[in-house]
């Protein structure tokens, strides 16, 4: 087996110092572009790989960041992870991913395991059960271990840390405003229980759009879906309620929206002529539903990138004494067949 080439070997061959090679490989502006190109070309030619173990020992770091998400099958979270990995890998960090499965106890266990020297920092989207309990002590204990924390998407203001969130109020507003613009008169929203902040905030945006139009809020058209029982049965019960009338539905996630499409077909409702639907999360379900689903794009990759940057800046002491930041990512409406009607001006 060939011996691995080292920074010292590259420095000797090119007649420069080891520190020059190290900085050139990190693309430091202190090194001339010509030297950087020479060093990188030589390193590529001989398949140079940095000694990660030596870096970890030298920096007293694991070079790993932990991510805890509520579920893996959700398209939004998979996009967030893509953004996190892009930034982390670009800064020589690896990513360890754990699932809470929406469980408070599982979330606590994941944090305890990762805080035991496995990672240098944590990125977390809070489990629904934790939000419902309102017990965040396991997050606040991370300060005792000097482990930086960044929350994304599902957050709590009771936890002091950096946060990256979607403009959920704006998203709910855009979805509802769109349905009003295509002529819908009675719009329902399928939301979450109030302890899940993203659903509650999207409902605020929904109400704001209706009030702006001078439409009274009908609380009977605000349906809160409980994920602890059958989602399909709950939505079906709501949609088959003969005492309710509606010609538009905002669903606060892709699964709820897909169920609306399915149940509307069972009721022989023509979409979008009799019922218009807008969901959240621009995933494969939205693209390949029949008809295709109009949706609010939450830009999961961007959220992941910002969250990872905030965390790594804390870990690498670039913002050690800086006040905690709260970044809000705007949403975009994507119009597809489920609401594609002539706009009413």
What are the main properties of this structure?
single chain; 345 residues; alpha/beta; Rossmann fold; six-stranded parallel beta sheet; six-stranded mixed beta sheet; 14 helices; 12 strands; 15% strand; elongated
Instruction: Give the uncertain stretches in residue-range form.
Output: none
Distance between the termini: 73 Å
What's the CATH architecture name of the largest domain?
3-Layer(aba) Sandwich
Main sheet attributes: strand count, strand direction, barrel closure:
6 strands, parallel
Query: How large a portion of the residues is in β-strands, by DSSP E?
Result: 15-25%
Count helical runs: 14
Task: Provide structural commentary.
- With 345 residues, this protein is of the alpha/beta class.
- The chain has 3 domains: 44 residues, no CATH class; 135 residues, Rossmann fold, CATH 3.40.50.2300; 138 residues, Response regulator (Rossmann fold), CATH 3.40.50.2300.
- It is 43% helix and 15% strand.
- It is built from 14 helices and 12 strands.
- The strands form 2 sheets. It has a 6-stranded parallel β-sheet, sandwiched between helices.
- Helix 13 links the parallel strand 9 and strand 10.
- It is elongated, with a radius of gyration of 25 Å.
- The mean pLDDT is 91.
């Amino acid at each position: 087996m060939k011996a691995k080439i080292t920074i010292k070997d590259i420095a000797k061959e090119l007649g420069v110092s080891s520190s020059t090679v190290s900085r050139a490989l990190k693309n430091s502006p202190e090194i001339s572009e010509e030297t950087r190109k020479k060093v990188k070309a030589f390193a590529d030619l001989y398949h140079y790989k940095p000694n990660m173990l030596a870096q970890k020992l030298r920096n007293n770091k694991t070079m790993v960041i932990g991510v805890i998400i509520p579920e893996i099958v959700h398209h939004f979270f998979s996009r967030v992870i893509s953004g996190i990995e892009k930034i982390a890998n670009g800064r020589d960090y690896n990513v360890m991913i754990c699932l809470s499965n929406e469980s408070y106890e599982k979330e606590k266990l994941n944090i305890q395991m990762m805080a035991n020297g496995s990672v240098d920092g944590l990125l977390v989207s809070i489990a629904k059960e934790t939000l419902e309990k309102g017990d965040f002590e396991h997050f606040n204990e991370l300060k005792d271990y000097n482990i930086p924390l960044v929350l994304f998407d599902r957050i709590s203001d009771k936890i002091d840390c950096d946060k990256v969130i979607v403009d959920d109020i704006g998203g709910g507003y855009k979805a509802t405003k769109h349905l009003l613009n295509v002529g819908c008169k009675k719009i329902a929203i399928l939301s979450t229980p109030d302890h899940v902040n993203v659903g509650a905030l999207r409902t605020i945006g929904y109400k704001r759009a209706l009030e702006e139009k001078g439409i009274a809020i009908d609380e009977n058209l605000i349906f809160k879906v409980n994920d602890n029982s059958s989602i399909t049965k709950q939505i079906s019960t709501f949609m088959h309620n003969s005492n309710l009338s509606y010609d538009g539905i905002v669903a606060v996630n892709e699964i709820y929206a897909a169920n609306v499409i399915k149940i509307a077909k069972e009721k022989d409702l023509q979409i979008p002529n009799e019922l218009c639907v807008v969901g959240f999360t621009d995933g494969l379900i939205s693209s390949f539903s029949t008809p295709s689903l109009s949706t609010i794009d939450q830009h999961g990759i961007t959220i992941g990138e910002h969250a990872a940057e905030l965390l790594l800046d804390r870990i690498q002491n670039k913002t050690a004494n800086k006040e905690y930041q709260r970044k809000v990512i705007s949403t975009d409406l994507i119009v597809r067949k489920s609401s594609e009607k002539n706009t009413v001006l």
